[in-house]
Amino acid sequence: PFSRAPGAPRRKTPDGDDLMGGVQQDPTGVMGGDDGVGQPPPQDLKNPWTLEEDALLAKLVEEHGLGKWTMVAKQLPGRMPKQCRARYVGKVDPTLRRDKWTDEEDKRIVAAQHRLGNRFADIAKLLPGRSESIVSHRWHLVLQWRRDDMLQAMGEHDYDFLGDVAKDAPKKERREWSLEEDALLVKLVEEMGEGNWPTIAQHFEGRQPKRCRDRYLNKLDPSLTSTAWTEDEDRKIVAAQSRLGNRWQEMSKRLQGRSERAVKERWFSVLQHKADEVLHTLTASDFDFLLPSVSLAHGGPRRKTPD
């Protein structure tokens, strides 16, 4: 489950139910796919909600109001207050939207998460029609991989919508890479080669070896390409992930011009949701690019080829 952001307060509803400042992984939440349309993930398979329960839940919330989850749960046999709340805010609430995510909404999620941490309940209040669970899923599956690029393009005015919500939240200091630093980093890698990140980092004030490595491999490497993803690349990512797990560095080595971050983002924002469908279309030869030696990731799916 997702944990609360450090320092985020625990909140209670008027009838004493404890609600986290963050959000747990919600089986009744709504995931944002690549096309931006919210799609409901699998519901509670042990005890799925019925249409009659949904109708009663909506009626009870209308009668008692939001926050009275203990009172509501008493009239829904077998349901806990937390389940009632999660079902309502993630699925039944009539104000929820199912349309595509907008660029402005994505920008607000990134800006809010930057200032508030994973306080998705608070972030959702800033996005009319979006529940905390769908905001959480949008962040974890799509936006966290684009965070750095989006934050770099933001100005202080892009945080104005937060108002008093972020008044007491500590502001995270970020020092963006300058053009001079980028030029020096490229020059040092040319001179010393990739892999000497501790030595390279010594030439920068306040830059860790990992930051230097990530900056170069994901942004500055002249071999990187920004062209549209091809079907062949997508099939290779799915095939590699089924054998390697989430070893993005190993995958990027087999996809010319694609960085670790680009491969990771492509997987989580597009391919993860249709991986099973793509795997069923692959043949033994589609895994040849992984040779000569690729060990199966621990716990990763093992798929038998037709032969």
From TrEMBL:
Domain of life: Eukaryota
Domain HTH myb-type: 46-96, 97-147, 169-224, 228-275
Pfam families according to UniProt: Myb_DNA-bind_6
GO CC annotation, single: nucleus
Residue ranges, annotated region (Disordered): 1-47
Gene3D superfamilies in alphabetical order: Homeodomain-like (1.10.10.60)
GO molecular function, one term: DNA-binding transcription factor activity, RNA polymerase II-specific
Protein name: Uncharacterized protein
